[in-house]
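Task card 7
Instruction: Convert sequence to structure tokens.
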Amino acid sequence: MRTLTYYVATTLDGFIADPSGGFDFFPVPDELISTIVEEFPETIPTQARAHLGIDPPNKNFDAVVMGRRTWEPSLDAGVTSSYQHLKQYVFSTTMSEAPDDTVTLVASDPLAYVRELKQQDGGGIWLCGGGSLAGALLPEIDELVLKVSPIVAGNGIPLFRADFEPHLFDPIESRVVAGVTITRLAARR
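Output:
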């Protein structure tokens, strides 16, 4: 069975973006970029892969799921398919058509859809964001990889937006890279 990994940057107070969805306040030092390229190369957008010397195959994931608001910054920049090296699924109830045929637009229940997707053949599935989609998919998340920056934002888009229902995760590893704590946790089933 495929696994769903929520791999995301977050602040100390649990925000993945500012209130309008921007994330350019996160520091991304060269050492952190090198670590990401080495360990999670498929999370680098297709347009930047050649510049960073990333050549397929993918290491962890062959698919990415994200909410519409996570996808919109790319669309606003004129990039309709940020992860052409992955199967892309964008969850939206407001869009009727994807502007790129490499992106599958999904209007159905995210939890049921991802449960079915995990049963199909393939590699890992990366949950790219956002907080509402992560909240909806929380019962299916197998692993968290959190890049915790030493920032307190005070407000923004939370790591998870969901009703109160505690889910336990077991720490696997934690280390600091260029001031960012990378923590890996497995869902306790």
